[in-house]
Design goal:
The protein has one domain. 87% of the residues lie in helices and 0% in strands. It is built from six helices and no strands. α1 packs antiparallel against α4 and α1 runs parallel beside α5. It starts with a helix and ends with a helix. The model has no long low-confidence stretch (mean pLDDT 92).
Length: 127
């Protein structure tokens, strides 16, 4: 049962971290180049833009959830499984989010890398 809880934490960590990454990327793209904004409108405007973005704070919230779920998982399982598995699954979720949510061009090489990462997670789960 403990192994089931550990894998549940790994999956929840990966999903929350991936959602956080996608939301943060989406928020930053909506704001535009922060360097250009700072040069044209000043640092105060950049800070106000970031602090007034609900999408940005949603991404930060998801990242916080991922952190705390990861802590719970570490109390149940081994770091040698949880660390690589959650990082690898986050990589997969980021590739899917980049392609289907952010509409990025994810080329064949990145999909192949995602496949190999998934194979690595499967090898971890059978150890």
């Amino acid at each position: 049962m403990r192994e089931l809880y550990t894998w549940l934490c790994i999956i929840l960590t990966a999903v929350a971290a991936g959602a956080g990454d996608v939301l943060l990327a989406f928020a930053m793209r909506r704001m535009g180049d922060l360097g250009d904004l700072r040069r044209t409108r000043g640092l105060g405007h950049v800070i106000a833009s970031v602090l007034s973005s609900g999408i940005f704070f949603s991404g930060v919230f998801c990242m916080a959830i991922a952190f705390f779920v990861n802590l719970v998982g570490l109390s149940w399982g081994d770091l040698s499984v949880i660390g690589p598995a959650s990082a690898a699954l986050t990589f997969v979720i980021n590739a899917l989010g980049a392609k289907f949510v952010l509409r990025e061009n994810v080329n064949r090489r990145r999909w192949l890398a995602t496949f190999f990462v998934t194979c690595g997670v499967l090898l971890l789960s059978n150890s």
